[in-house]
Design a protein that fits this description.
The protein is an all-alpha fold and 130 residues long. It is built from 3 helices and no strands. It folds into 2 domains: 97 residues; 30 residues. The protein is elongated, with a radius of gyration of 24 Å.
C-alpha cells in the first residue's frame, strides 16, 4: 500500500476522531447548560424562600452555588477526558494503519459494509412504520 493511501486513511481516522470529540464536547456543553438552568431554577426557588425562611436561605444558596461549581468542574473534566481519549484513539489508529495498511483497509471496508447494512435496515424499519 502506498504511503499516500496510508496517509489518507490516517487523516480519515483523525477526522472521525475529531468529529467524535466534537460531538462529545457538544453533549457536555448541553449537559452543562442543563445543569446551569437547574442551578438557576434552584436559586430562584431559594430566593422565593427568603421571604418564608430567612435562616435557611443562606444555607440553600451556598449549597446551590456549590452544586453549580461542582457540575461545571465535572463537565470540564469529562470533556477533557473525552478529548484526550479521542486523541489517543486517533494516534493508535494511525499507528495501526502505518504498521499494517492492508489489514486496515480490509477492516475499514468490512466496517463500512456493516454500517451500510445497519443503516439500510434502520431505514427500512422507519419506512415500514410510516
Amino acid at each position: 500500500m502506498s504511503r499516500h493511501t496510508t496517509q489518507k486513511l490516517s487523516d480519515a481516522a483523525s477526522h472521525q476522531v475529531d468529529r467524535v470529540a466534537d460531538a462529545a464536547s457538544e453533549a457536555l456543553d448541553r449537559a452543562h447548560d442543563v445543569a446551569d438552568r437547574a442551578v438557576t431554577s434552584a436559586q430562584e426557588r431559594a430566593h422565593d424562600l427568603t421571604r418564608q425562611a430567612p435562616g435557611l436561605v443562606d444555607l440553600a444558596f451556598d449549597r446551590v452555588r456549590h452544586l453549580g461549581e461542582r457540575s461545571g468542574e465535572i463537565a470540564r473534566a469529562t470533556r477533557a477526558m473525552a478529548v484526550d481519549k479521542a486523541r489517543m484513539a486517533a494516534d493508535q489508529t494511525a499507528e495501526r494503519i502505518r504498521r499494517d495498511p492492508l489489514k486496515s483497509v480490509l477492516i475499514a471496508v468490512a466496517t463500512g459494509a456493516a454500517l451500510a447494512v445497519i443503516a439500510s435496515h434502520v431505514a427500512q424499519r422507519r419506512q415500514s412504520r410510516h
